[in-house]
Design a protein that fits this description.
The protein is built from 11 helices and 24 strands. The chain has 444 residues and is an alpha/beta fold. The strands form 6 sheets. Strands 1, 2, 6, 7, 8, 11 and 14 form a 7-stranded antiparallel beta sheet that branches. The protein has a 7-stranded parallel beta sheet with strand order 18-19-20-21-22-23-24. It has a 3-stranded antiparallel beta sheet with strand order 4-3-13, with no helix packed on it. Helix 4 runs parallel beside helix 5 and helix 7 crosses helix 10.
């Protein structure tokens, strides 16, 4: 018997108001604590927003907290209902306090960065992404949105003893391979998740090759020459592997990993398009041995002609890094030498014409990427160049200084919010995938 439906209820439905997230600060010793009476604040450019339960989630596992020296936190005084910038603890006036930010786990996009003001002597911040974070009830709350649920770089699945066992196996299997030795340092010294995955035999393996680069990215993590007080957190590869060394690593990985991926273009190298003399024969050798597995390249896309030769040789997919779809902002960040943003667009079009899978490594930052001018440029670009995937990556650079540089290059209006940006692009381009990692061709 079908129901005619329930009678309407006279009860009023109550919706609980978003609760404030309490501010976190640190003292000069690096001790982090919540500051009662003050709410956490997020920043997008020069716009400030109170953090609440509605726009935050529990801090993702594997995220790290850090305090920002030579800066004062911007907080929300809950009793007085206003923003305040504090340099000392209001409950201990002799104790200096500093802002606290979170470096979030892969797969999560910062919707706000930590809110702060620089002191006069402040130097540029190290190369991290400074996500907004606070405290609520029994845990940390982060202003992030998840864009990729794959556990490719989940540290809980990369047990140190298993990584070391994998390193030992590969030492025995490829004792003379210099690229294997380089990846060993990446995994054990720098803690690189991609290198760890090679030794664990899972997902995607890195194939760093290029010593040189034709871009001078502000946030380059393997080489800093700008003299602005930045230090690269890892060393760039200092030799060029042979085609055989590259192919042996790739074939080993693809043989033992179902739906495996190998990728040129890593954080410990320059741009792989500048090492085509060894990558081209390496790709051919891999494809002579195996037709399965995905060969990918992460690149700045500066040389379409070389990219075309790689596609002919067997390259399956390409991920091209872009921080902005406005040429002025792109050039201000990448500082390209001998190429332009138009060459990057040509590479994307070439890959699409050849039927290759194309990802954009979108280096985003709240206040810049969600500015109306940037949003419109992204929409116009995607309408003309229908890429397959946007990998939303948090830009690792001092957020306030980055905003100033981008705003000087091309005006930035009031941001719409990263959540709104993600929804807008999803609505207008429902076929474009969101993610963080390079997919295998079985998922293209």
């Amino acid at each position: 018997m079908k129901s005619a439906g329930s009678a309407p209820s006279n009860r009023k439905r109550t919706v609980s108001a978003p609760s404030p997230v309490i501010a976190l600060v640190a003292n000069a010793h690096g001790d982090i604590f919540e500051l009662d009476g003050y709410g956490a604040v997020g920043m997008a450019g020069t716009t400030h927003t109170r953090l609440t339960s509605e726009i935050t989630i529990p801090m993702p596992h594997g995220s790290e907290l850090m305090f920002l020296p030579d800066r004062s936190p911007v907080l929300f005084n809950l009793e007085q209902g206003r923003l305040e910038t504090l340099s000392v603890n209001p409950y201990r006036p002799k104790e200096a306090i500093f802002p606290v930010a979170a470096f979030h786990s892969p797969g999560y996009v910062n919707t706000y960065v930590c809110a702060y003001e620089e002191k006069g002597e402040a130097g540029v911040l190290p190369l991290f992404a400074y996500g907004a974070v606070g405290w609520q009830r029994d845990g940390f709350q982060s202003a992030v949105v998840r864009v990729d649920k794959e556990r490719r770089q989940d540290l809980r699945l990369m047990l140190p003893e298993k990584v070391k066992a994998g390193v030992k196996r590969m030492q025995q299997q490829m004792p003379a391979n210099r690229l294997r030795r380089h990846l060993e340092k990446c995994a054990l010294t720098y803690g690189c998740p991609a290198a760890k995955n090679f030794f664990l035999g899972r997902f995607e393996a890195p194939l760093p090759t290029a010593r040189q680069c034709n871009a001078g990215c502000l946030g380059c993590i393997s080489l800093q020459k700008n003299g602005k007080g930045l230090t690269s957190p890892q060393e760039r590869i200092d030799f060029e592997p042979t085609p055989d060394e590259i192919a042996d690593i790739a074939i080993c990985h693809l043989r033992r990993v179902r739906n495996g991926v190998v990728s040129f273009g890593q954080g410990c190298e320059g741009d792989p398009l500048l090492a085509a003399d060894v990558i081209l024969p390496a790709v051919r050798k891999i494809r002579q041995v195996m037709s399965t597995g995905t060969i990918n390249m992460n690149t700045n896309g500066s040389k379409p002609g070389i990219l075309e030769r790689l596609f002919v040789s067997g390259l399956d997919s390409v991920r091209i890094s872009i921080n902005s779809f406005r040429a002025a902002c792109y050039h201000a960040y990448f500082n390209p030498a001998g190429y332009s943003f138009q060459n990057v667009v040509e590479s994307i079009d070439l890959a699409l014409e050849r039927g290759k899978f194309v990802s954009i490594n979108y280096l985003n930052c709240p206040g810049i990427s969600d500015a109306p001018e940037e949003t419109q440029a992204l929409i116009e670009f995607l309408a003309r160049h229908p890429v397959h995937l946007i990998q939303w990556r948090n830009l690792n650079y001092d957020p306030l200084r980055y905003w100033r540089m981008m705003n000087a290059a091309a005006h930035l209006g009031r941001p719409m919010g990263m959540r709104a940006l993600l929804r807008t692009i999803r609505k207008q381009f429902p076929d474009i995938q969101y993610g963080y990692f390079n997919p295998p061709k079985e998922k293209f």
